[in-house]
Design goal:
Chain lengths: ~170, ~475
């Protein structure tokens, strides 16, 4: 049990009006001070190369998808957000995803998929917003996830820079 | 049995078998690509090198375990530094031209080359020359696709074709660095055992067309089961993808029945198991069509029909397990009828390796329970003499012939336990049953070997086990007789 002591009010406080004036003076002062809140939909958060937004799939310059549906991101995903089914292609890269679903409600934006990907096909984009009218609409399919490589260039450059720290010159041969 | 000393421990070894067999029997892992317990050893991949001393005084030698015969008192060290070094060098050569396409390769996850290079291989290649460029998608007939770049030339596939179906079709052609696996004049492979090539291939060079790029192997849930396609009852593994879809049947080593192999008929027999439109729960015929009901209500209607309409004919499916057969015999005792099962004619798939040509996987089990096999024609003749008939088990309607069943008079009372709704005029009650990958049980094969079938995936919602349905019907009949 907590005992709250009632404050004994002074004479001017008991008069009521001086305190109202004091309060309003704070209000008026703040009206002209610098704002600390962000006007969100109009003023968006700045994103940098370090921003880990929602994962997106890379589409190469020749319009083919970089993903080969190897399933490593699916296996690495700690939230079981990714589901992949593969299929055969006519291209030199023989395999591509037939279905690539990410349940954005499950995704925790951890970036394990990006780290697991051996084909540099999935990157954390700078897209952060997630709102819709149904849960089903938030399970993103392959068409919703595809982004041209140019749109992800900033993050790709950053990840490559980080990876160079432990890459030896010959390990890619 | 001969005694050898393996890694400082005295173990028994079969002198008829090579050293690697003794190592594996004793639980010591020795990597191997060209060696397969079901094929003759050739020692071409050299990855199974271990250090051997013929006796305590002899100097140590690094030898291939798959081509070293067992001799009394030999001292084997699989973990010696020279053996590790030899295996590592060997692995570097095997990977010299192997493409780094594990993300694409279907074998990834069950590939011993991948596993072993992860364990002991080196992180970076030292090679400066470009890798060999060969055919990535060589069509070898209806079942197999060959990727010559991935091939490590272990020649298991060549030996399999020579030794098991005894139809030599594959060959290592060219010489040295140009060696490739080929068929003569690029003819397609033939025979009913081609699927095993994808199993024996230690890498992803030979892949199955129906499985190609369909699933990652670590996503498949595996259960030990028995093949349903003939009375041999080969031991198999059923592999199910996350949504309950069957993706593969693969042979499971069982020296008493099938060795390491299975035929393509059984291997690719999962398509009908993936078919949609299953009968969930039960259905009753009303005036125009069918009403979905709970199986217990359907069983009560069935009980009333059987009580009022004379002696029923009990016709079983040959896919019934022993347990279900026993429940059916008990039901027959209640009804005063002796059940029989539909026995389709022998098909032309029989060979002298595994396939018996008899499509009844539990013929022996059912016969021993006193359920005899009759042809569909004979059973139809018997149905004509009865007022009511009970069809029991998956695919029973298919084996009886849907046209013949459709021609039966509507006055006949027919109770059907099947996986699909049988929409014929004679049918009155249909009760759903689980198919063979959705229930556990026992099939007795032609040689009397009991094969367990496994519950690999759940049955559709509302479907209850056939044993439960049959026992429920028998119980209802018992209480009916007591009430009277």
């Amino acid at each position: 049990m907590v005992i709250v002591k009632r404050k004994t009010l002074s004479f001017s406080e008991r008069l009521y009006l001086p305190e109202i004036v004091r309060g309003l003076s704070i209000t008026f002062r703040k009206m002209f001070a610098k704002r600390v809140t962000r006007q969100y939909p109009e003023e968006r958060l700045e994103t940098t190369e370090v921003t880990r937004g929602q994962p997106r799939l890379v589409v190469n310059e020749d319009d083919s998808i970089a993903c080969v549906s190897c399933g490593l991101c699916e296996a690495a995903c700690p939230a079981y957000a990714i589901t992949i089914d593969g299929q055969e292609t006519d291209r030199f890269i023989e395999r591509e995803p037939e279905r690539f679903d990410i349940d954005m409600l499950r995704c925790i934006l951890c970036g394990f998929c990006e780290e697991a990907c051996p084909k540099d096909a999935i990157y954390m984009s700078d897209e952060l917003e997630l709102a819709d009218y149904s849960r089903a609409a938030l399970i993103y399919d392959i068409e919703k996830l595809k982004r041209p490589k140019s749109a992800l260039e900033q993050r790709i450059g950053y990840v490559n820079k980080i990876n160079q720290r432990w890459q030896t010159p010959s390990s890619t041969s | 049995m001969t005694k050898i000393i393996l890694n400082g421990r005295e173990v028994d070894a079969d002198p008829e078998q090579p050293l690697i067999h003794a190592c594996h029997t004793a639980g010591t892992d020795v990597p191997h690509y060209c060696y397969h317990p079901g094929l003759s050893p050739v020692g071409s991949c050299r990855i199974c090198q271990v250090e051997v001393r013929m006796n305590a005084e002899a100097p140590p030698r690094v030898m291939v375990a798959c081509r070293t015969p067992i001799s009394e008192g030999m001292i084997v060290d699989t973990d010696a530094a020279p053996a590790h070094a030899a295996r590592k060098e060997c692995l570097e050569f095997l990977l010299k031209n192997h493409p780094l396409d594990c993300p694409i390769c279907d074998k990834a996850g069950e590939c011993t080359l991948q596993d072993y290079s992860f364990d002991e291989g080196q992180g970076a290649g030292r090679t400066v020359e470009p890798r060999r460029k060969l055919e990535k998608r060589k069509d070898l007939g209806d079942v197999i696709v060959l990727d010559q770049e991935r091939c490590i030339l272990c020649s298991r596939c060549v030996r399999f074709m020579d030794e098991i179906p005894k139809t030599p079709q594959l060959v290592v052609s060219q010489r040295g660095a140009d060696s490739v696996i080929e068929t003569f004049m690029d003819r397609p492979l033939t025979g009913n055992y081609q699927g095993n090539l994808a199993d024996v291939c230690p890498v992803g060079a030979l892949t199955l067309k129906p499985f190609r790029f369909k699933a990652r192997v670590w996503n498949l849930q595996k259960s030990a089961s028995t093949c349903a396609e003939c009375s041999r009852g080969c031991s198999i593994t059923t592999e199910v993808l996350r949504n309950g879809e069957l993706k593969r049947f693969r042979p499971r080593a069982n020296p008493d029945v099938n060795g390491y192999w299975m035929c393509d008929t059984g291997r690719f027999a999962f398509e009908h198991a993936n078919a949609p439109e299953r009968l969930a729960g039960a259905a009753l015929r009303n005036g125009q069509g069918w009403t979905a009901v709970h199986p217990i209500d359907a069983l009560e209607v069935a009980r009333d029909m059987l009580v009022t309409h004379g002696t029923a004919l009990l016709v079983a499916s040959p896919f019934l397990t022993v347990e279900e057969g026993a429940a059916l015999v008990a039901l027959g005792r209640e009804l005063g009828a002796r059940p029989m099962f539909v026995s389709p004619p022998k098909n032309e798939l029989a060979d002298d390796l595994l396939h018996t040509g008899d499509p009844c996987p539990n013929r022996r089990g059912l016969t021993e329970l006193g359920i005899d096999g009759l042809s569909a024609h004979d059973i139809l003749a018997k149905i004509a003499e009865h007022e009511s008939v009970v069809l029991v088990g998956e695919r029973v309607a298919e084996l009886m012939g849907p046209e013949a069943l459709a021609a039966l008079p509507a006055a006949l009372r027919m109770i059907v336990f099947d996986s699909h709704l049988l929409d014929v005029p004679a049918a009155d009650v249909c009760i759903g049953v689980p198919i063979h990958v959705e229930r556990a049980g026992t099939w007795i094969n032609i040689d009397g070997h009991a094969g367990r079938i496994a519950h690999a995936r759940p049955a559709p919602a509302g479907v209850q086990l056939l044993t439960r349905s049959l026992e429920g019907l028998a119980d209802l009949l018992t209480s009916e007789t007591r009430a009277r």
